[in-house]
Amino acid sequence: xxxxxxxxxxxxxxxxxxxxxxxxxxxxxxxxxxxxxxxxxxxxxxxxxxxxxxxxxxxxxxxxxxxxxxxxxxxxxxxxxxxxxxxxxxxxxxxxxxxxxxxxxxxxxxxxxxxxxxxxxxxxxxxxxxxxxxxxxxxxxxxxxxxxxxxxxxxxxxxxxxxxxxxxxxxxxxxxxxxxxxxxxxxxxxxxxxxxxxxxxxxxxxxxxxxxxxxxxxxxxxxxxxxxxxxxxxxxxxxxxxxxxxxxxxxxxxxxxxxxxxxxxxxxxxxxxxxxxxxxxxxxxxxxxxxxxxxxxxxxxxxx
Amino acid sequence: xxxxxxxxxxxxxxxxxxxxxxxxxxxxxxxxxxxxxxxxxxxxxxxxxxxxxxxxxxxxxxxxxxxxxxxxxxxxxxxxxxxxxxxxxxxxxxxxxxxxxxxxxxxxxxxxxxxxx
Lengths: 304, 117
Known about the structure:
The structure holds two protein chains of two kinds. Chain A is of the alpha/beta class. In chain A, strands 1, 2, 3, 4, 5, 6, 7, 8, 9, 10, 11 and 12 form a twelve-stranded mixed beta sheet that branches. Helix content of chain A is 37%, strand content 23%. Mean pLDDT of chain A is 85; it is low at 120-130 and 271-279. In chain A, α4 packs parallel to α6 (133-141). Chain A has two domains: 4-155, HUPs (Rossmann fold), CATH 3.40.50; 162-297, HUPs (Rossmann fold), CATH 3.40.50.620. Chain B has a single domain, classed as Response regulator (Rossmann fold). A five-stranded parallel beta sheet of chain B has the order 2-1-3-4-5, sandwiched between helices. Chain B is an alpha/beta fold. Chain B has helices at 12-24, 35-45, 61-69, 105-116; strands at 4-8, 28-32, 49-52, 79-83, 97-100. Classes of the chains: A alpha/beta, B alpha/beta. The A-B interface holds A 16-17, 151-153, 155-158, 161-162, 256, 259, 261, 291 and B 54-55, 59-63, 65-66, 69, 85-91, 93.
């Protein structure tokens, strides 16, 4: 399932919890791990003068500087690298999201692992309330599953055995289900299929009675059976639930209640294929708040 | 009857320190080096409180807690997380407290007393 991991990192504290999960996965699943770092953005065009993303200084890029950064990353992750003998460190220049997508297309990893916000720009409040823009751009365009660990609290599980799949019944969610089901079968996990019935519109819309909500919950359960359970054959360790509320809150609460070690959900589900479209706010909020790693799947996953 | 504390800690120096600290303050202690051993001891001894290291040789702390909370006889035992890792505060969402290593012995004893009162 996870034989090749692309760990995209700023090699700073902001990615420490993502590193914990990435290296743990590499060790646990005997995977090759590519530690990938974009060290700077060229000042213009193909200039060799780059702005170092860690220090903010302008530096002239040559092999020595590249080797120096590689060595710094090697020593930063020294403790974790010792747990695996199958790793590579790659550094490059460019805009981080483009370079991550570029190496992913070339290397075809089973999964891309990233931290959330590195807090590299913007005010403190903004940093805490938004996922990283690099992550957003990668998750939107990647043809591979993207696993994000935004909070340190999400990084202490070690492996996957209890997985929540959150669906909104979109086509993109069907892609996410296909990935999730493959994962739970191969890794022998408990599987929780979950839908959050969005009742936030009820505040401005016509008032809905509890009977209406209960009917919608029953319909959603029937949809879960029809769309997903019917494709699961004789797979038994699963449960399904529908809760009403604010979707991202309910998904995070459900995962916490089940003590899930992974959430899988579609990304940007209601959006078009337009790469400039804004990201799916439910997925973003779940990533920000979850107590476990979140894998986001967009509709291009599996197309390469 | 003295209250029982289960110490789940793989570092023998820390485990010995905690054992001495708790015994000197009138508690009965049991010590486990792994999550598996911890669950077995919890089932056998039914401790009144558990101190839990996060990074154990066989499992991470949250996974131990998941097993603990799945057992109806053990699920209400208060757990204090003690770890040297950063960002541990919310690692076990239902833990009663979390303390970073190196920890203050008085602070830990205060927490233990509060939750065993």
